Amino acid sequence: MLEDVQIERYSRQIILPQVGGKGQEKILQGQVYVDGDGLLAAAALFYLVAAGVGTIGVARAKAAQIFSVLAEQSLGPDEQPVAHVLRRLNPDCTIVTHPNEDEQPPHHYDLVLATTDALHDGWYAQHKPFVWGAASGENARLFVSRGDRAARPCLRCLFSGAGGPLDSPARGKEETYPASADRGRAYFLFSPYAFFLGTQLVTEALKIILQPEAESPPKLLAYTFPAFHCTEQVVEKNPHCSVCSTPAHD
Known about the structure:
The chain is α/β, with parallel strands linked by helices. 34% of the residues lie in helices and 19% in strands.
């Protein structure tokens, strides 16, 4: 049951019919792992903490530099900057820093929220959701790969053979498809648009926590800035996908 201080802290969420008190309790019990090392991942972490997600995991080596800057005046000798900053923002949240950025996160996490595709295939094999977003220049994309839904497309079949993020030489970086120019990359990463996309990623994560059984058409969301123009494309499952069409997932 929510305490009085929590009711006050999350009042703007609790009044939403999609959340309510029971929903907020689910969020406080939720566990999300964040994979990414830039401003977009940092923005997602801030919004996950604001929402009150109970356990948030992050690769220690990939935590954005912004956390070191924010923590430098009050950081203890054995504290990690990302955990220090986020815990101070919301004491309800447990921040877990993982030392190895390349290994799969522990299976107890409900989902991975990522700005890179690096963990997707292994996480899909665990039949878990993977919320992915990437940005380059004035464009951004968002897709939810439901490893817990065998009939739905995964991130790999979304871009298989299409020259998309998974084919980019920048794979594993925060921008998983190449910017047309360095100016375009900086334009996004140091702008409020990263925080806008961060809210969209967290919204999708919260939907899964609140209603894990809900069904909706798998869609690729594409955003164009500064117009904040959004388009939706329904995505079909690739029957020849090397990840989600294998018998091992059935």
